[in-house]
């Protein structure tokens, strides 16, 4: 219920794309309330992982061990505020984003429209629209277009057009 995936976005996995949530969205618990939002026309390669806020541990004590989740009385006195302040918010992937094989997206990251995340990259911070990022941690390798072109592409927002208009304009969209 906390995952939104835009039209035409796909997950490419030879073992079956229908297992996307189980295989690729990790530590996503309804009670936390964080969302994974993926825009339209995104391509997500096999093995990409979205690490959600449920993977975080409280850092304010001497130990990061999650005693409270194991019961046996250890849950008594647990201050949920100590853990909640570690939450990083929703993870948002813009439109027309390509996420490469085995890339890892950390909690609370926003990936801008038209961005490319290289295979096996670890994205721990926001990615600008139309940036190409690679590495661990992912860093901008280059921009796909100059600032003016990026501004114009975001204003046009072709991914919001009806399918018929996209079809009529495919040569321009594909060909730049």
User: How do the SSEs run, as a string of H and E?
Assistant: EEHEEEEHEEEEEEEEHHH
Which structural category do the helix and sheet elements fall into?
Answer: alpha/beta
Helix content: 10-25%
Number of beta strands: 14
Task: Note the main sheet.
Answer: 6 strands, mixed
pLDDT under 50 segments (min length 5)?
A: none
State the shape: elongated
Number of helices: 5
Mean pLDDT across all amino acids: 93
Share of residues in strands: 15-25%
Roughly how many Å apart are the termini? 36 Å
Gist?
Helix content is 18%, strand content 22%. It has 176 residues and is α/β, with parallel strands linked by helices. Strands 2-5-8-11-13-14 form a six-stranded mixed sheet, with no helix packed on it. A four-stranded parallel sheet has the order 1-4-7-10, with no helix packed on it. A four-stranded parallel sheet has the order 3-6-9-12.
Secondary structure: elements and pairs:
Layout lengths: L2 E3 L4 E3 L7 H5 E2 L9 E3 L4 E3 L3 E3 L28 H5 L6 E3 L4 E2 L4 E2 L4 E2 L4 E2 L4 E2 L7 E4 L4 E5 L3 H10 L6 H6 L1 H6 L1
Parallel strand pairs: 1-4, 2-5, 3-6, 4-7, 5-8, 6-9, 7-10, 8-11, 9-12, 11-13
Antiparallel strand pairs: 13-14
Description of the structure:
It is a single chain. The protein is of the alpha/beta class and 176 residues long. Helix content is 18%, strand content 22%. The protein has 5 helices and 14 strands. Strands 2-5-8-11-13-14 form a 6-stranded mixed β-sheet, with no helix packed on it. Strands 1-4-7-10 form a 4-stranded parallel β-sheet, with no helix packed on it. Strand 13 and strand 14 (139-143) form a beta hairpin. The longest helix has 10 residues, at 147-156. The chain starts with a strand and ends with a helix. The model has no long low-confidence stretch (mean pLDDT 93).
């Amino acid at each position: 219920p906390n995952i939104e995936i835009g039209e035409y976005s796909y997950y490419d996995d030879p073992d079956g794309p229908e297992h996307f949530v189980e295989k690729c969205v990790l530590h996503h618990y309804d009670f936390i309330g964080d969302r994974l939002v993926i825009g339209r026309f995104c391509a997500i390669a096999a093995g990409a992982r979205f690490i959600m806020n449920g993977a975080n541990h409280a850092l304010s004590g001497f130990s990061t061990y999650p005693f409270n989740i194991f019961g046996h009385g250890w849950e008594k006195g647990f201050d949920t505020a100590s853990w909640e302040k570690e939450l990083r918010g929703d993870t948002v992937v813009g439109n027309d984003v390509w996420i490469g094989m085995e890339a890892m997206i950390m909690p609370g990251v926003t990936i801008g429209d038209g961005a490319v995340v290289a295979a096996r990259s670890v994205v721990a911070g926001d990615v600008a629209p139309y940036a190409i990022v690679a590495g661990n941690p992912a860093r901008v390798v280059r921009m796909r277009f100059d600032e003016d072109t990026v501004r114009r592409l975001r204003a046009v927002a072709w991914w919001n057009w009806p399918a018929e208009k996209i079809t009529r304009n495919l040569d321009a969209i594909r060909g730049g």
